Structures
1.
Amino acid sequence: MMFANTEYFFLLLLLVPYILWYVLKNKKKEPTLLVSNTTAYRFAPKSYKNHLIHAPFILRLFTLVMLVIVLARPQTNNSWKDTQIEGIDIMLAVDVSTSMLAEDLKPNRLEAAKRVASEFIVGRPNDNIGLTIFAAEAFTQCPMTTDHAILLNLFQGIKTDMVQRGMIQDGTAVGMGIANAVSRLKDSKAKSKVIILLTDGTNNAGDISPLTAAEIAKSFGIRVYTIGVGTNGQAPYPMPVAGGVQYLNVPVEIDTNTLAAIAEKTDGEFYRATDNKSLEEVYRDIDKLEKTKLNVKLYSKRYEAYALFACLAIIALLLEVLLRITILKRIP
């Protein structure tokens, strides 16, 4: 927070003589009731009013401080700022086909992948990161950006029910997922360009084969890290039935040969992720990649922020008046 008129803070120095005046005034004040002997009052219980005797003075001090802050005009910063940061360009390509509902990873494959990938995004604030999702077709959920708050919001909105809602056709088009991500990275000036492809199946849809897409990625100097998600053998899959859900063990069919070939062709790496720790290995490798400088323009809008302090001053003043005319009212 910034203050437009910081010179008004010098007014706070006036509180020092005011406090001294209050202390000296109370010392010289004569008692309101004269008695010959106070022995009878020595063990008398104190009223709660004794603890509130200085409350009006404290409230008045607080009011004055709040008024000075209001005069100083607190406000947010408002400026365009060109900066250079160190980072790499990354596109996450995530399979959202219905098979990602399998619960061999908890709570399911997609949610487990989202959780680990979100932690990765948060841990790399300087990277230019985007998001592609694919099933039988692919599209860009979020173009590359350093505004990771927006990216995370869009990322958390990914659901496998996109297929059921007709937003995307079911299937696994690995080649289309890579091609879509390449289209976002091909014009990048970064020294390191990476696609992290996460899928749990075998390519069975799309107009571009996975190896063809890998050739395209290689021609643009893009590394592809492929992740085959799912346990070996069989996985529990939720099947909706009348009145609930029934779990069936379905075979895990991941084309590891193709995924490994894609990674090898593009100088990337292939990972079999049977748990969250396996996913984290990918991100540790990416941390070792060479970084490049990116020009970023930051913008923040200025808002006058005095309203809160003004409200606090009014409330404090009203409380002081209320105490003086009720609980702490003095009889002349």
2.
Amino acid sequence: MIVMFGMGLTMKPRDFALVFRRPKDILIGCAAQFIIMPLLAFGLSSLFHLDPALTAGVVLVGTCPGGTSSNVITYLSKGDVALSVGMTSVNTLLAPLLTPAITWLLLQTIVRVDVLSMFLSIIQVIIIPIALGFVINHFFGSITKKAVTALPLVSTVAICMILASVVSHNAEKIYTSGALVLAVVILHNLLGYASGFGLGKLLKLTPEKTKALSIEVGMQNSGLATSLAGTAFSDLAMATVPGAVFSIWHNISGAILASFYRRWKNSK
């Protein structure tokens, strides 16, 4: 909620106006986000024969929207930041409906999915904090402009606390299955980058747009996935682990990817 509130403080009406100015680009980003990553998650879980708890966690990561990290990495990559922010904003607003629905479709025969609990959790953890931050930023912009400089540090501390909590509660289980989870998480993330990049090239998007699409697809709001796993799958302790591992890994891979994308010349 702290991280999402910070995201709301940085959002402006123009982030949503992009939907009307460039609907095709936003539609491509939304479709790619909620089709590619969930299917990759389910496919990798089946390929590696993950148990129900880990499968639930991996699929949750795949069905969640992109996070604010994708916007930062797109900026570092010299990609289309406006498009990245627009895709993240729209995907986040669609998450209360699409994340529970897609999760249920993929996991209904494997584990019990509490769709209503998941829907309410997303409203509580994402929509309300973002809306509150957005309203405060609109009416008290001069004050929030100063506070925004501290948000990256606050978000980092909050995410570290989430990860520490998840890892400490599942340390023994992570020790026995950590390598397998890490392998699935790495593949999920890298295949997401590659799929977004391939789709951008297939649709002949500009380098700036292709970078943004690749990063938006590959990087997930894994903090949300960890939170949802703890509420929707409270009887499956290991379901929180894939989201925690993804949170660490995608920031590392994103920074590496940005160093390569920066060398890819943008269109003139």
